[in-house]
Amino acid sequence: MPTHVAIAILVQDQKFLMQLRNDKPDIVFPGVWGFFGGHMEPGETPAIAVVRELEEEIGYAPPGLTLFAEYPSQTFVRHVFAAPLDVPLTALELNEGWDMALVSIDQVQQGECYSAVADQVRSLAPPHRQILLDYWQQCMAPPEAPQTL
Fold first, then answer.
1. pLDDT 10s digit of each residue in the chain, 149 long?
2. Three-state SS at 16
3. Shortest CA distance to 134 belongs to which of 104, 108, 100?
């Protein structure tokens, strides 16, 4: 049975809030950039879980939270929500993880981002990178100009 998790794409100024996960070998995707969010508790809906996780991890209750997509795999079902991040990073409390940053689409496409706390460039977790690429394409990318002959 896959584990259900609820995670959030938080957007500010065309950038995405990401968490640099702790560099502990006993967690999933240690030491890489991923989304805030986490495991759903028994009886919890994905929407309730993502709000609870965001409040626990960064002290933030997002406005206008909407379900973007679900990504099932053999090990996880990722319930992905999206919302604006309408406060500065300084207003957030990092209660879980090593660092946090606003990541540009260029960094997402490259698959890595610098962490001032780690003083290193760190990779994005592959499934989270793909989710952001999908979100960018479906919800944020400017329309392509019509081709002229």
1. 899 999 999 999 999 999 999 989 888 899 999 999 999 999 999 999 999 999 999 999 999 999 999 999 999 999 999 999 999 999 999 999 999 999 999 999 999 999 999 999 999 999 999 999 999 999 998 877 666 66
2. strand
3. 108
Instruction: Say if residues 134 and 105 touch (Cβ distance below 8 Å).
Output: no
Domains of the chain in sequence order = 3-140 (3.90.79.10)
Query: What are the Cα distances from residue 91, in Å, to 48, 57, 85, 141?
Result: 22, 13, 11, 28
Residue 18 CA to its chain's centroid (Å): 5
CA pair distance 149, 145, nearest whole angstrom: 13
Residue with tokens 């999206």: 82
